[in-house]
Design a protein that fits this description.
Shape: globular
Order of helices and strands: HHHHHHHHH
Distance between the termini: 30 Å
Largest sheet: none
Length: 257
């Protein structure tokens, strides 16, 4: 018998196992994206964008709610604003979608493990980090002028001096974002571990290392979108945050014991 046909411990051949994994991942990606897309549609509607097919058809693609960027030449032109409640809504729909996908496409025996992961994702990767970054954002914006004026500036008119001064001025906001995000992720993991133990009677310990921050691109995008002032760059980040927010749903739906 060929090596790839050898039966694995759970009764499936390696080929069958790979196909099941692929089927599961594709299904969960679809349901997580559907969850985020549904939330984004509700948010767009609530913020004044039309969801009528005829209106969308007659609107240039670059002006669709999901693609429109802030333009300083037309500051009054409406763009989608993604703040704490919108990010929490999209992440929650993502996790719900991922959980549904996991239930549909995976072994039913794994559902309890996915529920635990849903708690980890919602609390550890969303609610607590959002609360920390949102709080830091509001505190920073109240003191923004004082902090920026307190930063040292080089004298001169050269390109290097101009760029250096610009970077130094935004340094407090950047540091606040990173610190708030780090505190949020650490605190979120502690809270989710505690609730998993109390709700599911299973002790879960997630020790945070430097490499553990790599999967939190969605959190970083979220942090920047909450901390940054209006600009084309900041609005571009907000446009791609929904993609990153598919991650919690995918992690939930594909999680196993």
């Amino acid at each position: 018998m060929a090596i790839h046909q050898i039966t694995s411990f759970n009764g499936y051949t390696s080929n069958q196992k790979q196909n099941r994994e692929k089927y599961l991942k594709q299904g969960v990606i679809l349901t997580s994206a559907l969850g985020v897309g549904t939330a984004l549609a509700f948010i767009s509607k609530k913020q004044g964008f039309s969801l009528k097919p005829s209106s969308i058809k007659n609107t240039p693609v670059k002006d669709w709610a999901i693609f429109r960027l802030f333009d300083k030449k037309h500051p009054d032109k409406k763009t989608i604003e993604l703040e704490e409640k919108e990010i929490i809504a999209m992440a929650s729909f993502s996790v719900a979608g991922g959980l549904a996908g996991g239930a549909i496409f995976d072994d039913k025996k794994q559902f309890k493990a996915k529920l635990r992961e849903a708690v980890n994702q919602i609390l550890g990767n969303v609610l607590v980090p959002v609360a920390c970054v949102g709080g830091a954002s509001r505190l920073y914006k109240v003191n923004k002028d004082k902090l920026m004026n307190a930063m040292p500036q080089l004298k001169g008119k050269g390109k290097f001096v101009k760029n250096f001064n610009k970077i130094i001025k935004v340094l407090p906001g950047s540091v606040a974002t990173i610190v708030a995000l780090g505190v949020g992720i650490l605190a979120g993991n502690k809270v989710s571990n505690f609730l998993n133990e109390k709700l599911f009677h299973k002790k879960v310990e997630r020790n945070i290392k430097g490499s553990d921050f790599a999967p939190h691109v969605d959190d970083l995008g979220m942090a920047v979108s909450l901390m940054a002032d209006k600009s084309k760059g900041a609005s571009f980040i907000q446009r791609i945050v929904p993609l990153f927010l598919c991650v919690p749903g995918i992690e939930t739906g594909t999680h196993r014991e």
